[in-house]
Amino acid sequence: MADTIQFPGAVEWSGENPGISLKEKPDGPFTALASFFRVVLSPYGAGHALVLLQSPGEARPPKERPNLVLSDNTKLARWLVSDFVAHFGAMRGQAGLAAAKYVKLDRVTASGDPRKKYSETVKAGKLTITLTWSGLGEPFCFAFPPENSATGRHYMPSLFVPCADASIAVNGRKLKGKPVPRDIAGRTISTAMLAFSETWIKV
Predict the structure, then answer these.
(1) 112: left (phi over 0), alpha (psi -120 to 50) or beta
(2) How many angstroms separate the CA atoms of 130 and 139, rounded?
(3) 35-91 per-position pLDDT tens digit
(4) pTM for this one?
């Protein structure tokens, strides 16, 4: 019988965490960042959260480009932001994250095919945000050891689907920028990807 792969430590949360990070130039600053969560298990229960930075580097962004955290479970969302999102590479140190406004979301809808084109749509009052991933590639599984994870404290087994293009639309208005190339787990993908079956195990 094959050896069993086991991860020592405590499971903190499990679910989905697709993201989109946009730039106008590969060596330029991020123009927009989105990290979506569909959590099925955590110390704060299940729930959804969308961290959307339309003005990543601005603690006081223009009124038309606010930085938001939309969620149907505020305690969960605040924990995800403080303990996880704040450590993600693109989000780390962004002034817009620390000053983001928390908003209650009304509905979340997934649509499309994760092997071709996929979307998550979040509605909160008069606000509709649609994240779309397209040009999807071959799914692959990997597990980061703690020293290579975003937090430096977790194993992170996950399934990623790379994508060639992605967009963030707010009430039908597409935010500026495109995904740019990045390397992860020995593969060159982009700064937008689908992340399913993701589990964070604290050591």
Answers:
(1) left
(2) 22
(3) 999 999 999 999 999 999 999 999 999 999 999 999 999 999 999 999 999 999 999
(4) 0.96
The DSSP 8-state label assigned to residue 51 in this structure reads E
Which helix or strand (DSSP H or E) is residue 129 part of?
Answer: strand 127-136
Closest CA to 200 of 90, 63, 39, 60: 39
Distance, CA of 183 to CA of 191 (rounded, Å): 9
**Within 10 A of 66 (CB to CB), how many other CB atoms are there?**
20
Q: Could you report the per-residue pLDDT of 122-153, keeping only the tens digit for each?
A: 999 999 999 999 999 999 999 989 999 999 99
DSSP code, position 178: B
Do you know the residue count of the chain?
A: 203
Name the residue type at position 189: I
CB 166 within 8 A of CB 120: no
Tell me which amino acid residue 163 is: C
Q: How far is CA 126 from the centre of its chain?
A: 23
Q: What gap in Å lies between CA 31 and CA 199, rounded to an integer?
A: 28
Cβ(51)–Cβ(34) below 8 Å: yes
Coil/strand/helix, residue 172: coil
